[in-house]
Amino acid sequence: MIESMDDIELTDKYWDCECEKDYIHLHLQESCPVCKAESEDQPDSRVPEVIKNGFVMFGEETAETKAKRLALAWLKNNLNIDEWASLNDEFDLNVYMDDNGNKRVTVFSAVNGETDLESSIEVL
Ligand SMILES: [Zn+2]
Questions:
Q1: Could you give the 3-state DSSP secondary structure of residue 101?
Q2: What's the CA gap between 48 and 54, in Å, rounded?
Q3: What pLDDT does residue 5 have?
Q4: Which of 2, 3, 58, 86 could join 103 in a cystine, given CB atoms 3.0 to 4.6 angstroms apart?
């Protein structure tokens, strides 16, 4: 979910640790193995920084992290997305406003050219 505060857009899907470099972490990662910062004590990441820098992944890449990485790479080159976009043969990307007026960016698997709406992965 993207939250707008004044001119700043924050996402609760990522958080910043105390490192000078590679400080953006996926929310599922509870702490940074380098600076030892804990996600619950740290601020949410800024959306433009997540899109610019991607995220830091320690451990194995899963289908889900791969989809998120792909979506961020795509967003970097396509800032003005209108609702739906096809990332590749495997994934579709959707941007929408939820009932609370917060912007969300979600990826879905595409199977034989059809979007599988059950397979949502929230990116931002
Ligand atoms: Zn760190």
A1: coil
A2: 10
A3: 85
A4: 2
8-12, 48-52, 78-82, 114-118: range with lowest mean pLDDT: 78-82
* Residue 92: strand pairing partners: 86, 108
Distance from residue 40's CA to the centre of ligand 1 (Å): 13
The region of weakest confidence among 29-38, 79-88, 114-123 is 79-88
Tell me the pTM.
0.88
Beta bridge partners of 84: 94
- CA-nearest of 41, 54, 44, 56 to 8 is 44
DSSP state of 66: H
Distance 77 CA to ligand 1 centre (A): 27
pLDDT tens sequence across 8-22: 999 999 999 999 999
Q: Which of 30, 111, 28, 122 is nearest to 67 (CA)?
A: 122
Residue 57: CB atoms within 10 A of its CB come to: 17
